[in-house]
């Protein structure tokens, strides 16, 4: 009788552990899918990026409202070239870990919830950290012209 | 012996149900916290909203870049008054379920990942659905002036 009770108790404990493990796995998967607010979009092939990145154009600029909004997803190590915007740019970090650097300034580490206001005509780059993907919403006012693209961010600059 | 086995089996089944219920509750709480990219900010007391809503100013407009970005969280049934923007507005839905309506048009239901480009000087309102909170990022170009606030959205208009 005692032996049977012990076996039943062992069974229950095994069940609890199994369920908890299963639950933890489900949560992780679910959370990663849910965290990405916008679809990844299309692979960027403009030559203005190093590594693999994706753009989902959320809002195109037009004559009435010159503000363009795009969701950019960078795979680890992917980054923009150095560039500048004639009317500045705003970045909203929605997921992952990334970098942002203005010329002559140290590299900043960006995480979900961080925001950046990049001044007009200031050379800068942004992208994913070395080990983690990075997702940002870029808000760009194009009424003074489009971005001016410069040279690639070297590995030396990237890892500094 | 058979009776004891049956009791143990019943115990196990009860445990499974209990754990599943607990797990579902934990997941919901966790997901809601993770889904909110930006902090809720401060309760809005401008008189331009019906119900309870919160604003987190992410980026203020300035002379160089007239684009303002704010994260707005609406509790269920909360909504803006009817209003318009002299240079239009862009809304990015980051969580929850909400409504958007332009004057003379049917109400649109908005969910995470939806985007809205509201034209300049078009009367509109936005807010949460009746049962669910709603989180949006509002991108407003203030170079032609601030929002013009009109009358409240009546319950009749809201539920239509």
Tally of DSSP helical segments of chain A: 2
Query: Mind telling me the C-alpha Rg of chain A?
Result: 22 Å
Main beta sheet strand tally, sense and closure of chain A = 8 strands, antiparallel
Shape of chain A: elongated
Task: State the total count of DSSP E strands of chain A.
Answer: 12
CATH architecture of the largest domain in chain A: Sandwich
Q: Strand share of the residues of chain A? A: 35-45%
State the separation between the terminal residues of chain A, measured CA to CA.
68 Å
Helix-strand makeup class of chain A: alpha+beta
Quickly count the domains of chain A.
2
Model regions low in confidence, pLDDT < 50 over at least 5 residues of chain A = 21-34
Assembly level = homodimer
What percent of residues of chain A adopt helix (DSSP H or I)?
Answer: 10-25%
Elements of chain A, N to C (H/E): HEEEEEEEEEEEEH
Which fold name corresponds to the CATH topology of the largest domain in chain A?
Jelly Rolls
Let me know the average pLDDT of chain A.
86
CATH superfamily placement of the largest domain in chain A? Jelly Rolls
How would the blueprint of this fold be written?
The structure is a homodimer of 160-residue chains.
Chain A (H helix, E strand, L loop, with lengths): L1 H34 L6 E2 L5 E2 L2 E7 L7 E8 L4 E2 L2 E2 L4 E14 L5 E4 L3 E4 L5 E5 L5 E8 L6 E2 L5 H5 L1
Antiparallel strand pairs in A: 1-3, 2-5, 3-4, 4-11, 6-12, 7-8, 7-9, 7-10, 7-11
């Amino acid at each position: 009788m005692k032996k049977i009770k012990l076996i039943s108790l062992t069974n229950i404990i095994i069940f609890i552990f199994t369920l908890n493990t299963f639950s933890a796995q489900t949560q992780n998967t679910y959370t990663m899918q849910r965290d990405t607010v916008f679809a990844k979009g299309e692979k960027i092939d403009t030559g203005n990026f190093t590594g693999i990145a994706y753009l989902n154009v959320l809002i195109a600029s037009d004559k009435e409202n010159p503000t363009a909004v795009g969701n950019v997803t960078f795979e680890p190590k992917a980054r923009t070239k150095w560039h500048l915007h004639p009317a500045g740019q705003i970045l909203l970090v929605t997921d992952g870990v990334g970098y942002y650097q203005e010329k002559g300034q140290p590299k900043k580490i960006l995480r979900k919830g961080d925001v950046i206001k990049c001044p007009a005509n200031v050379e800068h780059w942004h992208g994913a950290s070395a080990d983690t993907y990075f997702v940002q919403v870029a808000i760009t006012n194009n009424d003074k012209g489009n971005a001016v693209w410069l040279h690639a961010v070297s590995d030396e600059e990237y890892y500094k």
